[in-house]
Amino acid sequence: GFSTTAGMSPYGTDAMPFNQYAAQLAQHGWNPYLNSMFPAFGLFRTPTSFYTYSFTGTPVTALSYPSLSFLVYVPFLALGWSQNLAPLLNVFAWALTVAMMFKMVPRDLRAVALLLGGFGLYLVFAIGGVTDVLFMPLLLVAAYKWDRFGSSRSTYLGPICFGLAMGMKQNA
User: Fold this and answer.
1) What's the start-to-end Cα distance of the chain, in Å?
2) Which of 99-108, 146-155, 163-172 has the lowest mean pLDDT?
3) Residue 17 contacts by C-beta under 8 Å, 6 or more apart in sequence?
4) Separation in Å, CA 142 to CA 2, 13, 99, 158, 159
């Protein structure tokens, strides 16, 4: 059986339960694109207000995210971590993004990086389930010194990270 979360759901969007459920399906050898995501709503106690609805008024139950959106969860599931995995990975990704911003910006702008990192709206998105935060560390690497691409072999890391970010979600 698949793991569920206890109590009230920390999964603030339908993307989070879809991604974790898709990872569980993949872990068991099933193709998440060929299976309904509807069971994820119950497994992760997703309130109906967090569903995405089609024009006909029915909940969207098909996975439409690129495969890296759920494959990032598989190693953690393999290690036995399933309770609140999606929201905790979001918070970790945001903390990593803030730490990377702090390290990458010039020394005199580091306070700005911390200020942006602590901005309430970003924190709410990270904690509340906006899965875009998972690709933020990758986009940060892609944007870092983007104008120097091709000047050395290490500059190829940016385009690779940009491709990985796009593999997580279309709007990267």
Assistant:
1) 33
2) 146-155
3) 11, 37, 40, 41, 43, 44, 46, 86
4) 35, 26, 16, 4, 6
Q: Which residues contact 110 (CB under 8 A, 6 or more apart)?
A: 102
User: How far apart are the C-alpha atoms of 142 and 155, rounded to whole Å?
Assistant: 9
pLDDT tens for 153-163 read 888 888 999 99
Q: What Rg value do the Cα atoms of the chain yield, rounded?
A: 17
Estimate to the nearest angstrom the gap between the alpha carbon of 24 and the chain centroid: 15
